[in-house]
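Subject: complex prediction, re-run

Hi both,

The earlier run crashed halfway through, so I resubmitted it with identical inputs.
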Amino acid sequence: MRHPRIRTARSSWCPRGLLSFALMLGLAACAPEVVRQPAQLTPTTGASGATIEVAEEASVAVGTGYSRVIRRGSVWSRVGRLVQGEVWKPVGGVFTVEGAHIHEAYLVLDGDRVVGFYLPVEHAFSPAPGTPTRLSVRRRDP
Amino acid sequence: MTIARWLVAVAMLLLGTGCATGPKYAEVVSTLPALDPSQGRIYFYRPSAFGAAVQPDIKLNGVKVGTAKPHGFYFVDRAPGDYEVSAATETEKKLTFTLEAAQQRFVRLKIQLGVLVGRIVPELVDRAEADGEIKDLSLIPDPLK
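This time it finished cleanly. Structure:
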């Protein structure tokens, strides 16, 4: 025979647990938009630009609660320049940033620091929040 | 029936319905029409059967190109340019990317838990990752039907 107090405790816990779960899922659906600033890309002139190879994996925050890993060994080709830095496109791979939606993105480096992302479809710059992540790379100039 | 039994019953229902059938990617890839070098090709595929009842329309730049059928794949050829893939259930999730001439892009349709129903998240994946996931999926020859 069940103790009535136990039954009371269970019946009050279940709706609260389900509510918490639903709220958690709801919050997951409410990620903010990726921050975008209009940007003018000045393309690299010439047939081919420089490339870099990432020597150490790095994680960069996007500012939407998400972060992105820049994989060790990934190769990036310089495609142009923004006011904020040089723009590097992945070679043979894809790179995206995510908030409420997902956007193809290129890295924007100021020297060896990741200052943000360039969104080629939106023609926009998305700044990386906080202190810029230093990226360990090997440069291969053309 | 307890809540746990209800959840199991719903999960079984969602897992077991509406998957794509037909020839697998590995069997048909060599017979697919050659890509016009002035165009790009976009593959759409959904590797998971979880939440199989959730099959929203998949739109490319606002035009329906198919649905998110579990264990299925299809493709469209398009001119180079900027593209937006969207899938709407209780919320709409979009993916934007560029397409170049002769380029092949792979969009994975990932199911994600939602508040009331699951939601489909279109993700851009690279060829190596897609090759590993798409090989056992079935071609949907007419995705608009």
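Chain A has a mean pLDDT of 83.

- K.
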